[in-house]
Amino acid sequence: MKTYLKEALAAFAATLMIPAAAMAQDSMTLKLGTFLPSTHFGVTQGTNVFMEELSKLTDGKVEVEFYPAEQAGKAKQLLELVRVGAIDIAEIGTGYVSSDDIPLLGVLEVPGIVEKVCDGTHASRTVGDPGGVVYENAYKPLGIRVLSYYVYSPYGPAGSRLPVESVEALEGMKLRNAGGLMELTVAALGGVPMKLTSPQVLTGLQRGTVDSYLGAYLSVEAYEYYLYAKYGATGFSMGTPGIFAVMSESKYQSLPEDVRNALDEAGMMAEENFCAYSDANEVRAIEELQSEHGMEIHTWTPEQVELLREKTASVAEEWVASLEARGIPAEQTLADFQAALGD
Fold this sequence. Notes:
There is one protein chain. This protein is α/β, with parallel strands linked by helices. The protein has two domains: 189 residues, 3-Layer(aba) Sandwich (D-Maltodextrin-Binding Protein, domain 2); 118 residues, D-Maltodextrin-Binding Protein, domain 2 (3-Layer(aba) Sandwich). The protein has 13 helices and eleven strands. The strands form three sheets. The chain has a five-stranded mixed beta sheet, with helices on both faces. A four-stranded mixed beta sheet has the order 5-8-6-7. The chain has a two-stranded parallel sheet with strand order 9-11. α7 packs across α12. The longest helix has 37 residues. The N terminus is likely disordered.
């Protein structure tokens, strides 16, 4: 990490951190940072639920100071900020870390395997909690623990400036993706991978520097991409990245047992609320984007779905081979993840 970033992190830690010893024994405040705006459904249906339940479970003993919209740091810095103790809890976009820091999170981006958000959430917790293959080989070495797994609805060309009525229409399109494995998916479909953060996409669509947002329709609605993107397609998952709320393991272990238990329970309650909301409201978002904002959203035909599967079949194989060559257990991760989807 560059010197200036180290200095920035140290300065931020100095201004935000309150040593636990300085707090009254019967109360404490935890600092939570996310890159999402406070109005995003990820916050209203996930983060807010976590904070409310944590307060209830601890009888108000534990409160959360919330820093939305990158107030605590840029999206790509949040993992490092929580690791060095600048903030206590960070919500990290899995696509921002699946290329380098946590490559095993690429399992969320394998095309064609996750159809329901709650299934993907359950599978993520199975492989990511202590004892799971991702925890033991990624989170534990990094010194982090996931409190909530917020998996998004299946991604696709959800906000496009150009009509998407055939698989061939994706060829040559500049497709904003979440990074990591999804770049391979875009390339396999003949598209041009564009890596932008969610807040940057609206400007990209407006200026035409990106042709389509590859994501969920709930996000098209939340970020108002429909202002410049009038087309889309649905019916095939091109990956299901998400946002995970993480805490450093050292911070987690420093807390009293009752607080740790409350964090665990609040985290699970929040992710369950989020996944139920997402599964129920993705369809609603598609319907309202068409009826209220004039979008034309194509449903892939069975023949087109089969063609999409054929074109992207090599993505998982390539991902597994590349990580296994580096001694990273991608094959076991994919197998365990898929097995958990069927539980």
